[in-house]
Amino acid sequence: MSESSISSSAQVITEQPQSQIVASRSRGPSVIQLGLLVAILGAGVLVTALTSQVTKMTEPGVKLVDGQLFLVDKVGDWIGGELGGLSEAEKNILPPDTEGARRVFKDKQGRELFCSIVLAGRDVTSIHRPELCLPGQGWEIQNEHVQQMPVAAAPGGALQVMRINATRSIPLPDGRTGRYRSIFLYWFVGKDRVTPYHWQRILWTTMDRVLHNTNHRWAYVLISMPNPSEGPQK
């Protein structure tokens, strides 16, 4: 075989796959891909349609006093300050039937912790994870994990909460900038349901709305406190 024949053969071999690649690209998505896309979009439309006209609502999983959300004013050695509710900024953003209660607690050593409960109404957008709002308040999330807390009233004597360790920049008296560390604990409470997982709350909410025509009225509980082992650092 001559050099010219080898060259022409090589040219034919290399050009043929290129033409096939161009042809396959020009064909666009396959029938299977289009079918999967339609199925996903159809499922989304179906869930939206089934959950948009929910008529029943469960009782809240947290205690109400005279029909209002409430926080106790004393827990052990911790004494609560004035009972507050949602801020004006929160009222302007959240659905009108959202309720809130919050207190700052202090013990005899002067230590403080902040406790807040937000109770959803008919709109599922009433509550959200703190991971969405903490960065907007200047907090930098370092890590998060589920932690078990000893709570006698909880099933099994323990409550699972999501713990977030976060830091924030603060101005120091000498003009420099320090880092302040804090701990955030949160969980979601529904009627006979408690979970530290946002995805599980959403899953239960969707199932209740689709299968039982019921809106699950969740409460979001948040406790935050300074991290005394760390404190402000330069």
Structure description:
The protein has 234 residues and is α+β, with helices and mostly antiparallel strands. It folds into two domains: 3-50; 53-226, no CATH class. Helix content is 30%, strand content 34%. The protein contains five helices and 13 strands. The protein has helices at 3-27, 31-51, 88-93, 130-133, 198-212, and strands spanning 56-57, 64-65, 68-69, 74-75, 78-80, 99-106, 112-119, 139-150, 158-171, 177-190, 193-195, 214-215, 219-226. The strands form three sheets. Strands 4, 5, 6, 7, 8, 9, 10, 11 and 13 form a nine-stranded antiparallel β-sheet that branches. The longest helix has 25 residues, at 3-27. The protein is globular, with a radius of gyration of 28 Å.
List keywords for this structure.
234 residues; single chain; 13 strands; two-stranded parallel ribbon; alpha+beta; disordered N terminus; 9-stranded antiparallel sheet; 5 helices; globular; 2 domains
What's the layout of helices and strands?
Blueprint: H1 3-27, H2 31-51, E1 56-57, E2 64-65, E3 68-69, E4 74-75, E5 78-80, H3 88-93, E6 99-106, E7 112-119, H4 130-133, E8 139-150, E9 158-171, E10 177-190, E11 193-195, H5 198-212, E12 214-215, E13 219-226
Parallel strand pairs: 1-12
Antiparallel strand pairs: 2-3, 4-5, 5-6, 6-7, 7-13, 8-9, 9-10, 10-11, 10-13
